[in-house]
Amino acid sequence: MSGTEIEAQAGSSDPRQERVRRVLARVLVFNLIVGVAKLVVGWSSGVISMVADGFHSMTDSASNVIGLVGIAVSSRPPDRDH
After folding, report:
1. Phi-psi region of 79 (alpha: psi -120 to 50; beta: other; left: phi over 0)
2. SS3 call for 14
3. What are phi and psi of 12, to 5 degrees?
4. Within 10 A of 20 (CB to CB), how many other CB atoms are there?
5. Of the four, 20, 32, 33, 41, which is 20 to 30 A from 82 by CA?
6. What percent of the chain lies above the pLDDT cut of 70?
7. How far is CA 71 from CA 43, 46, 68, in A?
8. Helices (H), strands (E): how many in the chain?
């Protein structure tokens, strides 16, 4: 791949990756909101299963962060050697 081709690809944005990034970001926000709500309700009511489910929702957020990092890394333009 020539330097010109690499530069041309660096300026282009994959619309599919952008849509995936937006979905992951939205789901991350929703998981955090739901997780916090479950934790608050669980702690205030003393229902341990609700607290556990709140932590489960929070750990679901971690998978969204991993997905966002993966999208960011995979959307980098190729360098001269790769």
Report:
1. beta
2. coil
3. -90, 145
4. 17
5. 20
6. 84
7. 35, 39, 5
8. 3, 0
